[in-house]
Amino acid sequence: MEVDYSKIKTIGFDADDTLWVNETYFREAEDKFADLLTGYETKNKIDQELFKTEIKNLELYGYGIKGFMLSMVESALELSNNQISQATILEILNLGKEMINQEVELLEGVEEVLAKLKDKYRLIVLTKGDLLDQERKLERSNLLHYFHHVEVLSDKKEVNYMNLLEHLEIDTKEFLMIGNSLKSDVLPLINIGAEAIHIPFHTTWQHEEVSVDKNDYKYLKINKLTDILKYLK
Amino acid sequence: MEVDYSKIKTIGFDADDTLWVNETYFREAEDKFADLLTGYETKNKIDQELFKTEIKNLELYGYGIKGFMLSMVESALELSNNQISQATILEILNLGKEMINQEVELLEGVEEVLAKLKDKYRLIVLTKGDLLDQERKLERSNLLHYFHHVEVLSDKKEVNYMNLLEHLEIDTKEFLMIGNSLKSDVLPLINIGAEAIHIPFHTTWQHEEVSVDKNDYKYLKINKLTDILKYLK
Fold first, then answer.
1. Are residues B116 and B44 in the same domain?
2. Of A66, A82, A152, the CB nearest to B66
């Protein structure tokens, strides 16, 4: 696809699975959760029911580890018909605490890309999820000094982006968003008239998957973050 | 105390227990939690242990209802020596969900004060806690239109205020903060050279209590929000 990013002045980066590994840890936690529930249901059924509980609670809890922990506890009670042991519930809580304490693992080329872009563009981080979780990860990532601004949004819909761009006085046409989620980091931006680049991560949470006719949307898809350096001089 | 607020251009309002009732619902939840644990420990011991668990988890979970829910579950397991029934754990989760769904009850005079101040000052909301919880409460409060900006902070320490004022390009000397917590809404502001007004709420979470020599700090203490109209013309 031919692209022209000469107008771009500000670049927004998603964080989870764009700058650092995230979804992988949720997948690992789901596997451990299924192990704890072994005997009550099949792995497949356990995965499905946990996902259903998460989606049911999403409006209440929002994105992030704490909501995930609460949904695991609820789901364990439900799947076991209240038979799951108290000790196992404590293990579920500890599983979540480990996730919160997880080290931050940067994705390949992140530092190189940010270092090359930071003098020419205004770089910002736009992430959704739990405020404290995201601030903690940014702190641990040692990437903060590359960014002019960090915003944690409760959701990444068109209205969230529009409000934020207005607040930061960023012209929509001069804004480029980069992220791994078509649903959260790409489509809403295209819809409001900004630019977006999609970098898929190998693992995507079911809730972030969308089915759209991709021909309706004009955006660049690349394989790895360093590829953006070919398009942004 | 004699005060001069003639330089003030921006007023920051805390939200929980300044604009609307909050702590009361936590206190009610703690009472219900103690009822659920009846038989395992005294009410006093249950309160103490829950508080200890909350403080222990504060760095991990931050402020807000979800962290409170997780601490209640953990505390129930601990206080009962893993004997608490699975059905009771589900009740604890439901107790938290009710808190999240709680209607917003504005404190006396809030609308009147905001309406009178909004044309003369730039009004902002500065609250700490869970991003989604606070956005939801603001939405339900119908107060959003009075505010130029809303910021949910992960904490309210001096550094949080300094970063925010810098980001919003607010001169510290032209900023006045109003809130119910001496620790979070008053002292850090005085320390960075801004102004602050303290309006105590009848209930204060133990963690928000501070012991300082109040003579060391110059701030106005008033009884109810409408009293600020005497000082801000």
1. no
2. A66
Same structural domain, A75 and A114:
no
| H/E segment holding residue A78 | helix A65-79
CB B8 within 8 A of CB B52: no
For B233, which DSSP code?
-
Centroid of chain to Cα A218: 22
Does residue A111 sit in the same domain as residue A225?
yes
Alpha helix ranges (H) inside B37-124? 43-61, 65-79, 86-101, 110-117
Reported as a single tens digit per residue, the pLDDT across A83-130 is 999 999 999 999 999 999 999 999 999 999 999 999 999 999 999 988
- In this complex, the residue of A74, A82, A87 whose CB is nearest that of residue B93 is A74
pLDDT digits (tens, 9 = 90+) for B173-224: 999 999 999 999 999 999 999 999 999 998 878 787 777 776 777 899 999 9
State the CATH number of the domain containing residue B96. Answer: 1.10.150.240
Query: CB B70 to CB A96 under 8 A?
Result: yes
Cα gap A53→A70, rounded to integer Å = 10
The SS3 call for residue A49 is: helix
Same domain, yes or no: A128 and A56: no
B154 and A132 within 8 Å at the Cβ level: the answer is yes
| A29 contacts A121 by C-beta, under 8 angstroms | no
Q: Looking up tokens 């969230």, which residue turns up?
A: A160
Domain of B167? 10-20+105-230
Residue B134 lies inside a defined structural domain of this protein = yes
Specify whether B160 is located in the same domain as B110: yes
The reply to whether residue A77 touches residue B89, judged by beta carbons under 8 angstroms, is: yes
Chain B residues in contact with A70 by the CB 8 A cut-off are 66, 69-70, 93, 96
Nearest CA in chain B to A77: B86
Report which of A183, A191, A178, A189 is spatially closest to residue A211, judged by C-alpha positions.
Answer: A183
What's the pTM?
0.92
Alpha-carbon distance A98 to nearest alpha carbon in chain B (angstroms)? 10
B105 - beta bridge partners? none
Does the beta-carbon distance from A154 to B132 stay under 8 Å? yes
With CA atoms as reference, report the closest residue to A174 among A188, A158, A195. Answer: A195
Q: Which residues of chain A are within 8 Å of residue B167 when distances are taken between CB atoms? A: 149
Residues B179 and B219 in one domain: yes
What does the CA dihedral B132, B137, B139, B145 come to, rounded to 10 degrees? -120
Which pair of structure tokens corresponds to residue B152?
Answer: 């949910």
Task: Please tell me which of the candidates A80, A132, A149 has its beta carbon nearest to residue B62.
Answer: A132
